[in-house]
């Protein structure tokens, strides 16, 4: 990475991104005080950049969107914004230092259609005060310890675990434990894009998700370890109608997944719900750790923190929710550039390299995490031949009702085969990310799956 474009943190240089540890201690109280002065409550640089293209953070976006009712379609609060400029195959070299390898590869692969429209940067990230308070506490009490499936957080609850990160794996856990509310419901579809440009729906479902880590009345002592629970009930396509899936992600690195198969009228537990195993939630098109740029245990890789960099990334993507037809969203080989909003933001860059003796389809990856929200927004993966193979993306949307700038539609492009996948498409649905009261934990269990499926 070009050193001119990287803002290295002194502590990162000192540690060298090393992950040889028994336990990495939390930051001292004096350093945590930065979260109340030069840093945002989530640990981002509060100030803007030198030329003003990234403004200072001033509290995020918490203004109710006019006319919005919980459970309805979500509007774009920045619909009047116009692009500052557009990046095409003709001028991409001017912006190469602000783009991922995957983005540049897409310009080469689809020079006549791929485009990035760059809008004014809006730092909309926000959270309730109690989440900020917990983040401040986490800064001095949370630490990384070595677990059986990788590096795991200890002593964190209800906020960003490592708001002043020192290692790549801490940044990764900030993404996994990012703020996106406690309980959400949405109707969605997943679509496979074939190399010849056809669109094949793989899932049409009702999804319910819960983040027990963010139960407001919880605590470090009460937290049981399951930080993300998910239930997906399929109504289509016809071959999958009636299928149900429940998944539970635990901070110890374990993911438990059960599938209800209507033909058998039985629930089966997946034996290896991990890593590059295909996930049934996408009909096997995505692997487990493709979900939302990265999900699941981290133990197969060494995680190196490369530093912080200004990058053009998908952001404030409510515009993507506006079309009512998928054909308006999905072009022949990629997302329609007309519905994507990109902005310049600072991101943490983390590289993952396969450990000796471990196996994975992608032995090397590079991830980009937004400093304000900790959302993983972009990633590139290389195959065993060293070829840039897959580039992944995740949109984020403004949800002032939480408040949050939360993850939403996500997907990948296979640069080798020309296929793609887009998941959590909500455009043809009347409900777009409904904030829910807390679900009973039984909803996300095999027994709850059986009950719901039989109905």
From TrEMBL:
Residue ranges the record marks as coiled coil: none
Entry keyword Ribosomal protein: no
Residues spanning the signal sequence: 1-25
Keyword terms of this UniProt record: Signal
Protein name: DUF1329 domain-containing protein
Record organism: Noviherbaspirillum sedimenti
């Amino acid at each position: 990475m070009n050193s001119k474009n990287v803002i290295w943190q002194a502590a990162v240089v000192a540690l060298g991104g090393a992950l040889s540890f028994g336990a990495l201690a939390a930051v001292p109280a004096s350093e945590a005080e930065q979260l109340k002065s030069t840093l945002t409550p989530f640990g981002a640089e509060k100030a803007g950049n030198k030329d003003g293209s990234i403004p200072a953070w001033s509290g995020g976006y918490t203004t109710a969107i006019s006319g919005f009712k919980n459970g309805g379609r979500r509007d774009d609060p920045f619909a009047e914004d116009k692009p500052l400029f557009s990046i095409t195959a003709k001028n991409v070299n001017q912006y190469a230092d602000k783009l991922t390898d995957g983005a540049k590869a897409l310009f080469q692969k689809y020079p006549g259609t791929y485009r990035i429209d760059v809008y004014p940067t809006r730092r909309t990230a926000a959270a309730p005060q109690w989440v900020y308070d917990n983040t401040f506490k986490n800064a001095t009490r949370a630490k990384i310890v070595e677990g059986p499936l990788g590096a795991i957080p200890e002593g964190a609850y209800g906020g960003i675990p490592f708001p002043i990160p020192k290692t790549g794996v801490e940044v990764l856990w900030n993404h996994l434990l990012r703020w996106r509310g406690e309980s959400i419901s949405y109707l969605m579809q997943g679509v496979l894009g074939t190399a010849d440009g056809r669109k094949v729906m793989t899932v049409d479902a009702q999804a319910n998700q819960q983040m027990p880590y963010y139960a407001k009345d919880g605590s470090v002592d009460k937290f049981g370890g399951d930080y993300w629970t998910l239930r997906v009930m399929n109504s289509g396509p016809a071959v999958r109608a009636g299928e149900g899936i429940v998944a539970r992600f635990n901070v110890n690195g374990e993911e438990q997944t059960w599938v209800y198969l209507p033909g058998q009228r039985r629930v089966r537990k997946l034996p290896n719900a991990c890593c590059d195993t295909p996930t049934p939630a996408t009909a096997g098109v995505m692997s487990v750790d493709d979900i939302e740029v990265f999900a699941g245990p981290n133990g197969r890789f060494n995680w190196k923190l490369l530093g912080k960099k200004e990058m053009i990334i998908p952001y404030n993507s409510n515009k993507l929710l506006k079309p009512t037809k998928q054909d308006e969203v999905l072009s022949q080989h990629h997302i329609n550039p007309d519905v994507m909003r990109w902005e310049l933001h600072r991101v943490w860059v983390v590289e993952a390299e396969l450990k000796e003796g471990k196996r994975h389809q992608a032995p090397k990856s590079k991830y980009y995490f937004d400093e304000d929200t900790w959302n993983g927004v972009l990633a590139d993966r290389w195959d065993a031949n060293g070829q840039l193979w897959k580039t992944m993306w995740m949109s984020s949307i403004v949800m002032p009702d939480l408040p949050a700038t939360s993850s939403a539609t996500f997907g990948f492009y296979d640069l080798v085969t020309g296929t793609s996948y887009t998941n959590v498409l909500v455009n043809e649905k009347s409900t777009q990310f409904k904030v829910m009261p807390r679900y009973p934990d039984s909803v996300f269990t095999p027994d709850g799956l059986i009950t719901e499926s039989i109905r």
